[in-house]
């Protein structure tokens, strides 16, 4: 199995995964979306809210503010404190305070966290606009959870993959009169395949236009795909960097494979 990095930044990544099968590729995709543990606001203790938002609306907005996740926290279900009804301990929860008076816009960066390592991933997320005399004062309690339970814990967004397209061309004396273009400008063929580079093929979305045109003009052009090579693209909500998200998703898949292997050994 090989990985070739195409694009890599803190919040997004694109890479080619080769030498595997769709089951493993989809396992990585699902792990990034649903199985990587993250911190998110689950409970809100409101002391004063005279803004235009109802308490429930304000709570929903706060729940979707991504928080940088520190690996020292554990889900409440596996914490030694035996948390009940949301009352946990410093190992499974972190508190963030918010106390702002208008007139001004309240941003995610106005939170004061009890743990400096846990902060909103983006300080400029607007929460509510306060007018003169309005105030929001609350305590938000964040817990570790999984995207499969609620979208607030979904660390990976826009995670997807496709088979790597392949363009096959056989030389023919009439190719000079055949020019084929696609909407993504992935394929442009004249007399040769010199400009059918890997980068071009990565753009291919297999729309079928090239196939329809080639059937009429040049039957030697064929767009297929490599069944064992996948082009991944992903974005992180900010809880983790894109690199951390990929590695943690791989750890999840590895851990489940090991667990399954142990179960089979006990049978």
UniProtKB/TrEMBL annotation:
Residues 12-263 form the DNA-directed RNA polymerase RpoA/D/Rpb3-type domain. Gene3D superfamilies: 3.30.70.3110, DNA-directed RNA polymerase, insert domain, RNA polymerase, RBP11-like subunit. One of its GO terms (molecular function) is DNA binding. Its EC number is 2.7.7.6. NCBIfam families: PRK00783.1. Part of the RNA polymerase complex. This is DNA-directed RNA polymerase subunit Rpo3. Belongs to the archaeal Rpo3/eukaryotic RPB3 RNA polymerase subunit family. It comes from Methanimicrococcus hongohii.
């Amino acid at each position: 199995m090989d990985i070739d990095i195409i694009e890599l930044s803190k919040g997004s990544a694109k890479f080619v995964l080769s030498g595997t099968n769709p089951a493993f590729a989809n396992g990585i995709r699902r792990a990034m979306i649903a199985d990587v543990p993250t911190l998110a606001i689950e409970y809100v203790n409101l002391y004063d809210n005279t803004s235009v938002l109802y308490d429930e609306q304000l709570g929903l907005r706060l729940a979707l503010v991504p928080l940088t996740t520190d690996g020292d926290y554990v889900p409440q279900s596996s914490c030694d404190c035996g948390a009940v009804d949301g009352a946990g301990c410093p190992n499974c929860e972190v508190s963030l305070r918010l106390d702002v008076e208008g007139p001004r816009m309240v941003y995610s960066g106005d939170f004061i966290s009890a743990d400096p390592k846990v902060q909103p991933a983006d300080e400029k997320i607007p929460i509510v606009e306060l007018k003169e005399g309005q105030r929001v004062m609350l305590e938000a309690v964040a817990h570790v959870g999984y995207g499969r339970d609620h979208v607030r814990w979904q660390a990976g967004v826009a995670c997807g993959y496709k088979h790597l397209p392949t363009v096959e061309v056989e030389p023919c004396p009439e190719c000079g009169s055949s020019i084929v273009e696609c909407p993504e400008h992935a394929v442009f063929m004249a007399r040769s395949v010199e400009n059918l580079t890997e980068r071009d093929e990565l753009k291919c979305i297999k729309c079928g236009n090239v196939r329809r045109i080639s059937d009429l003009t040049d039957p030697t052009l064929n767009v297929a795909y490599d069944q064992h090579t996948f082009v991944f693209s992903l974005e992180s909500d900010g809880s983790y960097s894109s690199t951390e998200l990929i590695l943690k998703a791989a750890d999840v898949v590895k851990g489940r494979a090991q667990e399954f292997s142990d179960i089979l050994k006990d049978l």
